[in-house]
Amino acid sequence: MSETSTRTxxxxxxxxxxxxxxxxxxxxxxxxxxxxxxEFVSEWLKSHAGVxxxxxxxxFAVLAGLAFLPTYAQAILGGYAFGLWVGTPAALVGFVxxxxxxxxxxxxASRDRVEQIINERPKWRAxxxxxxxxxxxxxWKPAFMVALIRCPPxxxxxxxxxxxxxxxxxxxxxxxxxxxxMTPRTVLAVVVGAGINGVLNREAYNSAIPVWMKVAGIGVTxxxxxxxxxxxxxxxxxxxxxxxxxxxPVPPAA
Length: 254
Prior knowledge:
single chain
């Protein structure tokens, strides 16, 4: 893609472009800050007793939804501050709330821009329809695909919110798929936080993550990438062979 076409694409994306940049870089940077101050934040939350759990879940939702903090760092905080049995449900409430906030922001920012760009490109539209159905139509297929996309441990939460909302997947399958797909990795992050003992450093984090968890994370990621890649390649092949999906209906003139 040439520099001119790239600039034109960014202009057509409108606010979605800057949001994507924030979602791409901000969580990683802020996550490091949170993890290096884990003990201080944890003690502050615990000092507020039961209210601290509510503050944690609300802050998790807002900061994740605004793409300020990554879900894994906040889930680790939940495990470190409250332990496994309290930290897990508190983190689940936080990431579901964050997914909903991120979705609503992205829908307002993107409007029909991303949808129009995709519909102008048969291959992009074929991949979108193969993965999520036509504009996220239906319920179970989009929900399943969202769960699949959310499942890998390294799936970027904020940027995924933006992409899924921009292609106009409906709220119900989006929320259900997010809950199903992200629950395992969130629980594992809480387990890591609950397992940290002693001084907070790289060695403490590494020792809190079992080897099987690292291996399983890599394996799950590879399997899902292969599944999504096969579906996308099949959709592109159908377009290349002349079996392009039907053109989207043209809205009536005003």
